[in-house]
Amino acid sequence: MASERPGWRAGLYRLLDPRARKQPGLSWLNRLIVVLIVLAATLAVIDTETAISNAHRAFFATADLVFALLFLLEYVARLWVAKENPHYAGKRWPALRYALSPAAIIDLLAILPTLLAWAGGGFVVLRLVRVMRLVRLAKLGRFSRAWLYISEAVWSRRTELQLTLAFGLSAMLLSATALYWAEGQVQPDKFGSIPRALWWSVVTLTTVGYGDVYPETVVGKFVAAVVAIIAIGLIALPTGILAAAFSEAVQRHKDDER
Amino acid sequence: MASERPGWRAGLYRLLDPRARKQPGLSWLNRLIVVLIVLAATLAVIDTETAISNAHRAFFATADLVFALLFLLEYVARLWVAKENPHYAGKRWPALRYALSPAAIIDLLAILPTLLAWAGGGFVVLRLVRVMRLVRLAKLGRFSRAWLYISEAVWSRRTELQLTLAFGLSAMLLSATALYWAEGQVQPDKFGSIPRALWWSVVTLTTVGYGDVYPETVVGKFVAAVVAIIAIGLIALPTGILAAAFSEAVQRHKDDER
Amino acid sequence: MASERPGWRAGLYRLLDPRARKQPGLSWLNRLIVVLIVLAATLAVIDTETAISNAHRAFFATADLVFALLFLLEYVARLWVAKENPHYAGKRWPALRYALSPAAIIDLLAILPTLLAWAGGGFVVLRLVRVMRLVRLAKLGRFSRAWLYISEAVWSRRTELQLTLAFGLSAMLLSATALYWAEGQVQPDKFGSIPRALWWSVVTLTTVGYGDVYPETVVGKFVAAVVAIIAIGLIALPTGILAAAFSEAVQRHKDDER
Amino acid sequence: MASERPGWRAGLYRLLDPRARKQPGLSWLNRLIVVLIVLAATLAVIDTETAISNAHRAFFATADLVFALLFLLEYVARLWVAKENPHYAGKRWPALRYALSPAAIIDLLAILPTLLAWAGGGFVVLRLVRVMRLVRLAKLGRFSRAWLYISEAVWSRRTELQLTLAFGLSAMLLSATALYWAEGQVQPDKFGSIPRALWWSVVTLTTVGYGDVYPETVVGKFVAAVVAIIAIGLIALPTGILAAAFSEAVQRHKDDER
Prior knowledge:
- Four copies of one chain form a homotetramer.
- The first copy, chain A, is mostly helical.
- Chain A folds into two domains: 2-143, Four Helix Bundle (Hemerythrin (Met), subunit A) (Up-down Bundle); 158-257, Orthogonal Bundle (Helix Hairpins).
- Helix content of chain A is 74%, strand content 0%.
- The first copy, chain A, has helices at 6-16, 28-47, 50-53, 57-81, 94-99, 102-119, 124-132, 138-143, 146-156, 158-183, 188-191, 194-205, 218-257.
- Chains in contact: A-B, A-C, A-D, B-C, B-D, C-D.
């Protein structure tokens, strides 16, 4: 079979795996796959708007099947070329090893629902399927260096991020306790318990401030003001640290490439 | 005609193009044009408030025409001096080449609507005309170094900005999906599809939080809280990176000038 | 008694005090105590939600007592090993000295309420007890380096933080005065005095923006817009400074450890 | 008179002007004045809350007079010691020159209203007086280095701040225009003119988001989402730049002091 022709397989592997190319950037096949994933995700998003999708049922159903078949083709191709991957060199069952890698499982999860729904899936599973197809977006990450940079940034500052996250969450909990104490009696449905007051905490300390919950008494407003001024600063710490680390990680890689 | 007198034309060119001057800063003519553009834009903005503009119809109409004529004069002057521009030196049709440059097209777009409206434009085009005149503001950019710095900052960090924007938009989409799953059944008009839930995503993750949409169930609030804490950090990444890059770009130019 | 056997006491001291260990990290006993504190705090938080706690009264009461007894055991153990603490070496009454340290007082406060409530505490004190038990969370700080880093960061930039806080609070007060002047007559219940307008100030300048108070007149909106654009920048200054200082403090300690 | 005794005057001058002291920090007299100003400002703020001030009319009136007399005493003392100020050395009329300096005018403005109100001021001027007394707070600035640092930070980055402010305001104006175009017909009272849409712009791009104005149509929401994601980043630029510059200014002074 095709597996007898290593030339073809090696060529396809170079087209599929960006790390196997000599030039930087993506091959035409990878570019095509990126476009397909973005198109499939966009369609999956619009599909949830029943006002649109019900009016064009046939189109959405066909497009869904076409994308599923294309991604199935890509999945099979990736299984076939796994033998060329230097990562599995000299190991047995390269295709199986690849199939059990997280990236391959995401790929499979993105195809299966549509195929199952066509093979006889009922109405109940439909809703879940729609959302799951968005997992296809995660494949975009495999093509870009973004995941590498972000994970490097997070790893290099893991101490700071852990500490500031712990501080932020403690600040959130203590703010909720303060408001539970100050407003719990006046607005029992909104501040009547610490878990309820936590919703106020999150909405306020992230500065979203929907306006569905806010203190009404003078004491509550005073406590909320003091808490907000102190805690908002703590909540913003991780973002500042992450931004600096991310910028550093990208600059380091640029220097390496020179 | 005037094109026979290169002394006059060269002098006017030096008055109009800041790059042709030896001293830093703007010539008196450029300062005047900046003031005219700001005045014209302010008037265009106030003009949209019909309570004011209808009461002073004659004043606004006259001012509009005066500004259009002044900008027409400037446009013709710029066409005439294009021959002096070293950028077009030795090339044919300098005036035509200039007229096709983006800056000149913006200038023309800012004049045309008023003239067309006076030449016989009807009622329907009026609304569009008002808004289009704001394009005049973009001319301000040509006089300042701001565009240069911003574009340099964006270019020097294009990798980071692309990656963080992609992350931010993915975070937005995944948040919308999570809330569509959690609240879609309870508030179908607000979270009943992913495109609808995206409005919640944008309003929450930018921390604007109007309060027109927010989760109401316990599950929805929990999902929204987790999503908000994680995603707000991601959304803030590009801003931090852009601020650092912009500051660097300006400092670099200051060092050059010394 | 046990105090005759210094080997046991010294071993227990090494298990309890992270600074007495040679290896970095926490001993198994300290890890266990962290887990217990997190569990106890989580339970105390859920306990305030009467819908849940009333349905499982027996479980919450038992868990509360178990945690109190475990923390009592820990408290007594810490008193017993105080003699081994080099901090109190050569001083008299080491256990008493330890008992008067802030950390030990927090520990005692976290145990006492439950024991008092069981010993015969009535209904009135119950509410206060629930909230006070959250103080147990503060014990987490003793195990981590977070407090050290945060206090170092705050201390190294105390000048900047003091100044920017003073500026931020002044900006808040002046904004409130401006809105009191602009909207006081129109919305007397919301802007009728500077203390009332301060609530608007806090909610706006922290960008929370609940939507319970906002200017309604044209003058009020204009003043609020100008004030918001200027003052929000001032309010954000301390956060930026603190984030940079915190990141520096952590990096400095990492360099020391190498 | 007293002006014959230069020893006393020179001593008082050293107590009043922090720059005349050899040691860093404030003299006991300056500390007292700071406390008096903070007390007076706090009282002026509480005084606007008529529910409190009417119930304690006599107390507030007396306190007001006492503070005014104390500040009058300080004002006269500062006029008297102006002769000692090296800034006015060898110049004529040092007291008059001092009286015309901005700091002295602020001092006078903070005293005059109360004295005028007592000398026979009517009911109408009362409201203005209350707010004006807050100007006393500005005197705090003279004692601290904060104004120096902030003005240095603003000055060292004036180019960046000007450019980013211009960008931010343009982004605000263009956002308002976009929403005026998208929502003007549907919500004429909120988006019916660009000045009205500007209120939406300010509230959204500062991420305050009261919730009194927001787009309701699909087109409006789409435009608002795109505009918000782009423009919020631009609005945040000046803050980031100012925070960095302020931190630098303080560090530079610390190095100088060593």
